[in-house]
Amino acid sequence: DTSLAEVNSFSPSVPISPSSMINQYKFEDGPELRDLFITVDDPESHITAIETFITYRVVTKTSRGEFDSSEYEVRRRYQDFLWLKTKLEEAHPTLIIPPLPEKFIMRGMVERFSDEFIETRRKALHKFLNRIADHPTLTFNEDFKIFLTAQAWELSSHKKQGPGLLSRMGQTVRAVASSVRGAVKNRPGMFTEMNNYMETFNQKINLLDKIAHRIYKEERDYFNEMKEYGPIHTLWSASEEDIADSLKGIASCIDRCCKATEKRMAGLSENLLPILHEYVLYSEILMGVLKRRDQIQGELDSKVDALANKKTEKDLFLEEIGKLEDKVERANNALKADWDRWKQNMQCDMRSTFTNVAENNLRFYEECLATWETFLASQTVDLHVEEDSEDRP
């Protein structure tokens, strides 16, 4: 999603390390085979007597035959995106549905409805829809097509056609009952390995997310202190005529380092923090998908146990078991294929993100080092000039 070519560029005069990672890694996209392009932009605020909310423009361009037009433009609010995610989970319980930004994303770092909050959410919603569009199965979901094409009143009407309250309650009760049964007896080893992997991944990604937020906070505190540090030297230079130029030079260096720090903070908040938090949400989604697969397996196990205890109605049980075996096999195949796809995307995202951060750090320290080296070189020249003038008769 973020190419290394988009790394913040600094002054051309700043030296670039020959071992710079940007010279060692090159990530290239595969051949362009997409036939569905989605853009989320143009956030618009709506204030009513009941609530205040934001809508986003969703523009879709496609060459698919099942669409009546090649281009659509609709407006959607967060609740609409949440409805779509719910429908996808209902239709594809063992596929990995991309995460949505939370109701209050990056809480404590930005204010709700601020420009920064809205832009952060817009990017996340844009990524959410495009991840669905790139998915080999989800992209052809009928609710997804309706989300992209239906006008507001049409979408509202379609939402009312969903399962009723009692049906949803029944699904919830079955899910709870299945979870209470305990561990699945006949879970294939592959899915046990997936569970173990996700437990470790969940711990590590949550820890990385917390550390990254702490680093960002410390960087922000350092930046705020630096903004006060530079002007002090400028004020000091007014009362120290002999070293005024040196003090002003230090103030200038601090100011340039302050700007470089601000760029690095922007890189953290735009690239590292959102990716890490996205995969925190992904880890929760994956653990939910694995539980739903286990629920299907549990239904099959319970029927097999019931058949062993009941000799009557054997044919009926055999028929139900056959259907459940097919359901489990479909769930296993869907999850295995999606697991490989998700893991490949995750590794690519992490590699690109951490390489991006490392490259930004290299550029930051190279710029600051060059700034201070230039200042020291100028002071050395001044000292030599003063010594030469003192040696003259």
Automatic annotation (TrEMBL):
The keyword Nuclease does not apply. PROSITE patterns: PX (PS50195). Gene3D superfamilies: Arfaptin homology (AH) domain/BAR domain, Phox-like domain. Residues 307-334 form a coiled coil. It comes from the Eukaryota. One of its GO terms (biological process) is protein transport. InterPro entries: AH/BAR_dom_sf (IPR027267), BAR_SNX7 (IPR042131), PX_dom (IPR001683), PX_dom_sf (IPR036871), PX_SNX7 (IPR042130). Belongs to the sorting nexin family. This is SNX7 protein.
